[in-house]
Amino acid sequence: MNLWTLLSDIPPDALLEAVRPFGEPFGYPEERDGAIIHDLRPAAGLEATQSSLGRAAFLPHTDAAFLPPHLRPQKLALYGLNNEARAATLLYALDDVLRLLTPEVVEMLEQPQFEQVPPLTFQAKLGSAPLPGHRVLTRDAGGVPRVAYSSQGTRPGSAPEALGAFETALQATKPTRVIIEPGQLLIFDNLRCLHGREQIVGPRHLQRVYLR
Ligand SMILES: [Fe+2]
């Protein structure tokens, strides 16, 4: 798989079957009671939040950024049930962001000097206190960089300049826009790209599955 792929004509009851070639579906007991399929649609009272339950534009992030790399979803699957709102999912390749950064900033982003707040959907079980020792960038065994960041959850810790440079580079990176239509399944790498969402005006209902 490249960084992302889009499949069409998937019936709703075939979602888990369709994602299996890309990884093993799983959930976290601390989020949505361990559900494997997550409904993503605006929830009453949470419209303004930066979350899968909001309507506001959702700035670039990776899912479960607060967890160590081996516990994060390696891939995310988003399935369209209804997107009358025609709100696009935005995908940012990490390599495009890194191209805009100096080696010095990249090295600082690899240090455990940031803080990360768990996302809203985990906060009922884990609280909202920032967790120290966060690294925005890590590398896999082959030296390939991976990212863990969210616009509201990543705090600068002792390296505000490095985080500021990363955010400036992210803002300068042009995303790929994907409007997920009913029956379409978007699968993308949660470690090698960031994703966001346009503001939702009107009905929209997606489902999400984490893969490892
Ligand atoms: Fe997300």
Tell me about this structure:
With 212 residues, the protein is of the alpha+beta class. It has one domain (4-211): Double-stranded beta-helix. It is 17% helix and 29% strand. The chain contains five helices and 15 strands. It has helices spanning 15-19, 94-98, 103-109, 120-126, 160-171, and strands at residues 4-7, 25-26, 38-40, 58-61, 75-82, 89-93, 114-116, 131-134, 137-139, 145-147, 154-155, 176-178, 185-189, 193-197, 205-211. A hairpin with a 5-residue loop joins strand 9 and strand 10. The longest helix has 12 residues, at 160-171. It binds fe (ii) ion. Residues 61, 63, 195 line the site of fe (ii) ion.
Spatial shape: globular
User: Percent helix among the residues?
Assistant: 10-25%
Structural class: alpha+beta
Mean pLDDT: 96
